[in-house]
Design brief:
- This protein is α/β, with parallel strands linked by helices.
- Helix content is 38%, strand content 14%.
- It contains 30 helices and 28 strands.
- The chain has an eight-stranded mixed sheet, with helices on both faces. A six-stranded parallel sheet has the order 17-24-21-18-20-19.
- The longest helix has 25 residues, at 843-867.
- The protein starts with a strand and ends with a helix.
- The model is unreliable at 1-132, 763-828 and 863-888 (pLDDT under 50).
- Belongs to the helicase family.
- It comes from Petromyzon marinus (Sea lamprey).
- It catalyses: ATP + H2O = ADP + phosphate + H(+).
- Its EC number is 3.6.4.13.
- It holds the Pfam family Suv3_N.
Length: 888
Amino acid sequence: MSCVNYECLNVRVSGGLRTPRLWMGGGGPSWLGPGWDVKSVTRAQRAAHQARSSPHSPGSAPPRSLSVAALRAPPCGSNMSVVRRGSAGLLLLRAGVWSRRVVASSASPRGPAWLVPSAVAWGRCLPSAFSSGPRPADTSLFVPLVVQPAVGSEEDIGAELTQSLDKNEVLKILNKFYKRKEMQKLGVDNGLDARLFHQAFISFRKWVMESNALPVEFHIALSDISYGAGHVDDIFPYFLQHSRQIFPMLECMEELRKISDLRFPSNWYPEARSMQRKIVFHAGPTNSGKTHHAIQRFLAARSAVYCGPLRLLAHEIYERSKGAGVPCDLVTGEERLFASEEGRPSSHVACTIEMCSTNIMYEVAVVDEIQMIRDPGRGWAWTRALLGLCAEEVHVCGEPAAIALVRDLMFTTGEEVEVHTYERLTPISIEDHALESLDKLQSGDCVVCFNKNDIYSISRQIEASGQECAVIYGSLPPGTKLAQAKKFNDPSDPCKILVATDAIGMGLNLSIRRVIFNSLTKPTMNEKGEKSMERISTSQALQIGGRAGRFGSAFSQGLVTTMHRDDLPVLKAIMARPLEPIQEAGLHPTAEQVELFTYNLPQATLSNIIDIFVSLSQVDGLYFVCNVDDFKFLADMIQHIPLNLRVRYVFCTAPINRKQPFVCTSFLKFARQYSRNEPLTVGWLCRHVSWPLAEPRNIRDLVHLEAVHDVFDLYLWLSYRFMDMFPDALLVRDLQRQLDSAIQEGVRNITRLIRATEESRGGVPHKQGSGEDDSSSADSPNRPTQTQGPDRTSGTGYRRKGQGTKNQGPGGAADMRIGNTTLKAVKGGSLSEQLLQQGLLTQQMLNQLRRELARDKKSRGNAEGDDGDGDKPGHRGNSPGDAKGSRG
């Protein structure tokens, strides 16, 4: 009989208890209790006794189907060694905080073959656990520093000891050194591959040839080589020293590799590892009620946190909690709302997932849309929440495709996953025919497009047919999206058709009867930042199509179809495919890791540091490094601005759309103003965005208003990180509400804006006094045209067409009211009078300027008279501004 002995070595997992599962011969499984600790030795002995007493013939093994689940794999990255002594096999599993030793004897010299860990889990651990070594660094990212040659008046001691060097002879010696294969090989041994060796030699040769005085030892070595008393290889120590000067990373490569080692992210959160968490996975398709069940537990808990991907979702849970009588705070990157009037934190928090705290203890945590853990840009936030939230219960909601990955991730922390599956509450089906014509649209239809131009085109055609439609796309402010959704859902509103992008996939409750895909391709970005047009995935098709027939809406069944006939069979094939299991979770370098990296490379740019970090980073089969192109883009933009590392890092994590020039320009100005230690007040911001803005007259104006809204978002985001430098968050939020109202009005009239844009592009003149401005298309797309006339600012803070003042400055010539605060602007009078009142100009300075201006006018008048010009001074042109310009 085969004898299996178990020696359990205190397998506590940072406060949590691991439950190993072993198959004992043919007698079936034996569970070693729900937990291991010092008191569990007797339980382990009892399990071993059961194993000895189970019938098992020598050399036999359990059924093959049990081999995969036989022994659960140790955490990824752990060390495993197998030592064989005769007929006994010793399997030692170590994982830092827990270990388990299994001694098995069998008639087979190879030991019991069925003691095999899960094939899937082990296979994904192997790349990091048993790799031959770290991958080589991408040396193309190493930017050489400049070493200045010694060109001063220093005394050349080497020349005094020997004699002056012949530069031509030195050049020959250096070139001979470069060509020697032995030196190149020696360079490789010291971290200099062919690329670095070449770059280092170019710098070294320039330094030698341009220096007036070389170090004494090096001078003597060159002199000896030139007279045949030395060998050219004697140059290598000096060359290597120079190479390490221009490539400082060569001397600290091991330290850099350790800092960028991302193989054990679960160890980044010691607070979470110190407790035994219960992980509950609510798996199901869209409209299955999975999040509802998690939220019920959220509301019933003593303390809880909800983590969602969108502000809209966080705001929905915030409102839902208030409606249930549960005090709840709202925390997003741009907003903080407290249930308590005194501003005291509540026991419940609804937040966007990037804003969740990994230090606060909760009874329940809800992580929504867990499938986004694979997102190339934001996946790191879900990984951080899943591994780091300090909660007794962590409820995870999302697609079933994420179950296997979550189990593998939780295995590395020693935590079990309890899975609850849900079915869709209402049926959904794919129609047998495509729509093919917008004339066939019916009440409750939603046309889904994947670019904004299609949104404009289709909405224009729909309204041309006499029907109203609502419009939703990603760059709209949350308030505008909600207003459009409310308009579409309202039974009494004549708007019964929705035109939207995939932004409807989550965060909005919509009463949709049928989803119509206008196209099945959309722009995507992979982990490397490469963009391409690809067909939507099964996950995306189910997420978007599943919005039809929402439970509790007017439609008890959801329908899905396509606009074009050729796309319909493709859509059916896509939605019929099973969901592909999610393989990897995203990671992102933390501020602490980047800071440690910078200490070793103090002269490198932040963008270059991130590049080197990613190239040296090591991850196991469960993780990938998220795309950092946006971070690097912002880092390069503000590299020339003097900021300390922490501030620079925070600025580079700001969530902005780098495709919008006006937003990028504002970001740059924010950073520059911060570097000057000058607070960014609401007055400064109003001047920057030219507030108040004109109402949109075409699509370009509307796009600019959306960009200004993003600038306000950026200000608010920074205000919660640098409160002293961005002090007017409340006032800016009032401005943003007014701006949101103007954008909503523009979206309601989007067909008129589209028509105005088409007419301006086609050269169709606008009628005088019609309110349309044919010059708007020629203006900068970053700024809507500001009209002239008496200042009659509307209650929303926007000048209507034909309103405003001619010389109204960026802040407006009239008083500007923001909430309960009035920003005083100097009224009336010339520029000189305004400067005097503001204390920027004294009367003496003004008198001096007037005398100088009079002399200049007189001298210009004499010169013009001599030239025989018929125009009199002061009467060039007949613009009204010239007649007024002489004052002051």
